[in-house]
């Protein structure tokens, strides 16, 4: 069963959008409560992540501090920019701790749908049905990070906090 925001992080298989959303909310609450230094969000477009919810933004706000780092990797960010109205201003305000890259449609740039931390991860193996696994398993966590890093290397800076123009 997925965790509630004030409970320990879940481990094991999950199935369905509601289960994934609950896990993400719990992860954000845990990040704030435990002061995680780094969080990586990776997804082709973040379309179905609950990042625009008030509770998600409140948890991110509680987590955000100097020395923290949030990494966002996507194939594209236009859906996130349009679909998560609360997240966009939060991202602008915390630009100094948020790093975003987009891989586009390049061959070999398939972005995994995952949350990664130095001690725990969530991997949506089947993003269409929101099926996947959450775990603290070190070898699996390392393999997921290597996959994320491979996409990161092919990606370019994206989702700027502001647009400078003439």
What is the N-to-C succession of helices and strands?
A: EHEHEHHEEEEHE
| Proportion of residues in β-strands | 15-25%
Percent of residues in helices comes to 25-40%
- Point out poorly predicted stretches: 1-5
CATH level 4 superfamily: Endonuclease Chain A
The number of distinct helices, counting runs of at least 4 residues, comes to 5
Oligomer: single chain
Mean pLDDT: 91
> What is Rg?
15 Å
Query: Alpha-carbon distance between the termini?
Result: 52 Å
Number of strands: 8
The coarse overall form would be globular
Q: What CATH architecture label applies?
A: 2-Layer Sandwich
CATH topology call: Endonuclease, Chain A
CATH class: Alpha Beta
How many domains make up the 3D coordinates?
1
Largest sheet: 8 strands, mixed
Q: What class would the helix/strand composition place it in?
A: alpha+beta
Strand order of the largest sheet: 1-7-6-5-2-3-4-8
């Amino acid at each position: 069963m997925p965790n509630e925001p004030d409970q320990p992080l879940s481990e094991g298989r999950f199935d369905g959008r509601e289960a994934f959303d609950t896990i993400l909310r719990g992860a954000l609450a845990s990040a704030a409560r435990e002061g995680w230094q780094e969080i990586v969000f990776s997804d082709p477009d973040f379309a179905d992540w609950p990042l625009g919810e008030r509770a998600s933004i409140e948890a991110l706000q509680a987590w955000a501090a100097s020395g923290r780092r949030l990494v966002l990797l996507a194939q594209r960010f236009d859906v996130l920019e349009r679909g998560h109205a609360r997240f966009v201003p939060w991202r602008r305000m915390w630009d100094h701790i948020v790093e975003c890259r987009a891989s586009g449609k390049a061959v070999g740039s398939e972005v995994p749908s995952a949350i990664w931390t130095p001690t725990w991860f969530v991997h949506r193996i089947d993003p269409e049905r929101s099926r996947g696994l959450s775990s603290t398993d070190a070898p699996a966590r390392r393999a997921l990070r290597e996959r994320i890093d491979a996409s990161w290397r092919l990606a370019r800076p994206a989702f700027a906090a502001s647009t400078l123009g003439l």
